[in-house]
Design goal:
Blueprint lengths: L1 E6 L2 E4 L4 E9 L6 E7 L6 E7 L3 E4 L7 E6 L4 E6 L8 E8 L15 E2 L3 E6 L1
Length: 125
């Protein structure tokens, strides 16, 4: 089975930067897409950034221009560079992976086959 492990979470000041990474391990086969979600306290899980073949990239409106998603296919990792962080960015961030393209972009929540344990990001005012 595939396991996803996030790293890089922590506490930062508003306006600061942080980079999250997600590494996939285990039995990796087929086409795997790796994207980023987040869940703030009392909020639903939302898609933050997604990347697919063909250079299709999605960013939530709330993070557009501040966050950047990057994929290293050789290392089976995906990163999320977060700049100009705001207190409302405080959340647990999850890496999610799908083996195949489900025919829609950005993907829906149930399109993913694997999820990481989450990395907590706290942005102070």
């Amino acid at each position: 089975q595939v396991q996803l492990v996030e790293s890089g979470g922590g506490l930062v000041q508003a306006g600061g930067s942080l980079r999250l990474s997600c590494a996939a391990s285990g039995t990796i086969f087929g086409l795997v897409h790796m994207d980023w979600y987040r869940r703030a306290p009392g909020k639903q899980r939302e898609l933050v950034a997604a990347r697919a073949f063909g250079d299709n990239i999605y960013y939530a409106d709330s993070v557009k221009g501040r966050f950047t998603i990057s994929r290293d296919y050789a290392k089976n990792t995906v990163s999320l560079q977060m700049n100009s962080l705001k207190p409302e960015d405080t959340a647990v961030y999850y890496c999610a992976a799908a083996r195949v393209y489900k025919g829609r972009f950005p993907p829906l929540l149930n399109d993913y086959d694997y999820w990481g344990q989450g990395a907590r990001v706290t942005v102070s005012s």
